[in-house]
Batch of 2 targets.
Target 1
Amino acid sequence: MHLIPCPCCGPRAEDEFHYRGDATVKRPAPDAGEQAFYDFVYTRANPRGWHVEWWHHYAGCRQWVKVERNTMTHEIRTAVGPAEDIPEVQV
Amino acid sequence: MSAPERRSRFGGASLPARGGAAQGDAVTIAECPATLIQVTARKGRQDALAAATLKELALALPAPGASALAGDCSALWLQPGGWLIQAPANDGNALVRRLAAALDGIAAVVDQSHGRCVLRLSGQQARAVLAKLCRLDLHPRSFAVGASATTLVGHVACTMRLVDETPAFDLIVGASYATWLLEELVEAADAFGWQLTRAGAAQPA
């Protein structure tokens, strides 16, 4: 069980959240071509270590939260609002 | 046009008036009919919303995790820019009309009185009962009188507030989940003894 430090609500249990995927992917420019969009939609890294993810606090403040989680240890060290950036991930 | 009559949400549960190990009143679960209005600030209008609510209801909109009380009206923080106004049930839809007029262009005003149900859980063992159903730390140190939170209670998203030191908790839940939540509360309270108070007989806020 993760305890996710929601920037609005404080530490909350993981079951109040839905996992919403990789928060590092950026939408390509409209004219970037088919391969760029294929990668945007389907291609994901599978990092061992620190990773920035979207979690949706559906049973709380209903905000999307950017969470920095270690995929190996499950440690969570940062959680910020959707408009904020988490500094460059250091593995 | 008058508002349709509000029906008790306890109707679906076939439960006796009291039960549990002690057959006593260690915990009381009451349905508290209320007017519930959700206000959500339009983009960039949060300060205007706070000022208008203060002027209209003398209610200072609370910070995250808190609630505010002014007369028989209270406000609970729901989400950034969003609050729930709780008022007595007996004014039809006068309050929602008044707020909609006062907050025109400032906030979205949605009457949730029919969509939500307020269950008040009170008594010495109320914290012990809730602790079985939700993961929040309910110790007075971290959840004091006036604190509010939206969290999962019995697997259902629920906005709750600690009303007084009894302790008494208001649990605001989607109306169609009220019977489920009531049955979960009764099961959790079985070890202590519980009694139910139906709509209309609820104590004032």
Note: Chain B has four helices and twelve strands.
Target 2
Amino acid sequence: MSGHRVFWGGASRGLLALFALSAGVAPAQSPQSPPAVLAVAGDVSSPLQLKADDLAKMPRETVSVREEDGTAVQYEGVPLREVLARAGAPLGKELRGKALATYVLAKAHDGYQVVFALAEVDASFANETILVADKRDGKPLFGYQGPFRLVCPNDKAGARSVRMLETLELVRLRK
Amino acid sequence: MRCIFRVLLTLPLAAWLAPLCRHVQAGEAYAWNLPKGFPKPNVPLDNPMTAAKVELGRYLFYDARMSVNGKASCATCHQQELAFTDGRAVGIGATGEPHSRGAMSLVNVAYSAVLTWSNPRMKLLEEQALVPMFGEHPVELGLREGDGFVPMLRSDPRYRELFAKAFPAEGDPFSIKNVTRALACFERSIISARSPYDRYHYGGDDGAIPESAKRGEILFFSQPLSCFRCHGGFNFSDTTVWEGRAGREVEFHNTGLYNLSGPLSYPAPNVGIYEFTESPRDIGKFKAPTLRNIAITRPYMHDGSIATLEGVLDHYAAGGRTIASGANAGAGHDNPNKDSLIGGFQLSAQDRADLIAFLESLTDDAALRDPRFANPWQ
């Protein structure tokens, strides 16, 4: 499980282009730390507002990723599929037909956004465990990383391991 | 700069650019003692780190006899207390000739994929050292092939001892090649990793930096500002390399500092990597240096044209600098080569203070006073 970069400092130029700022003047976000609530919203039957205590009661896993210096770091949290399943996302046997045209929009406190096809988080399609992490090496995430972040152990670049994760929005393209 | 290359080509370059074979050298292995978060630097196979070479390099680095008139050493432009910069907008050589660009910090230079502001080909410290030593445009140290420098080394009792320890397998170790090897080893040893931010981020010391700096960190790493996209990673710089990780394609950036009318939008001779690539798209593109110790390395940018960190924030917040009048007048915001990341942003007074506090938390006082990096002649 290598390739994850906490800082994403080495993002490729292609990724940089994706992140490019618009020509206008972008307002800075509040410098305050993001709220300790993770919203699960969009085309789900049971929208959620999850706090750290809620995540602590859900099925938890740990994934190991490599830091830049090669040392292993343990991220702990709840698999993204568990979070989405609790909100009523069509997973498992329900993930077929039109449901396969569904994606997850992950939004960060600072406006950063990435997407995952829903099949990427379903165990019958993908082997990877994408984690909604709240701890790193046993300690709560802090600063610009937390309090929640995604960890995608199998991604070669770290750019989808969204820091300061605030919202998971499910979007069904075909209903 | 091309003239410098001509100088280098007159030297026995084959001697410097030896095949990358394993060069077995005796001597005490160098202990990096790197803290958490810092990978082991890349070291050329033909110049492995040893404690003896690092020590020899330190003596050479601070020795003004390595200049045409005994008035300058490497440390003249790379002063430890200023994070190995000189506090000037542009460097001044031994003969008083000004350089066209500012002296870059040598802190953590071992991780740099490229070494200078705008030379995409300069990647080895062993080669780069020849430029200040022998370069003529401008004259920095002003040495000449065949002058008295090497004989001085051979006759100095201290250097006789230091060279013998550093290069024990060589009968006559007194050569420019070995001087550059030792200098490179010393420069690679200058690691800055003990700032308050390091204690906070890597050490888990929540009280190591003020709350203002923590807010500034979040801003620095935020999407709207995106400072970290060019000043990222553990070294807060662009492309870095270390052992086991080859460098990616190195990027250079036009940040909209200038937008002159005419074919060159940046004032000559500082036209960025265009000087080497001759591609008009590369005019004004320079390296994004490390931000470690940035609070004490003013003035800023490649030509020292911004005096303060506040001024740097103004420049980036505006999405480029506008110069109203004079020879450099123009709206940098509209430079056709400007990096798409330089889009501008709004900052409150509190945001500014927080960002400055964060940048100040990157000052590593321990490195700036570390006796291992200090002048051994004093």
Note: The helical segments of chain A are 13-19, 52-56, 80-86.
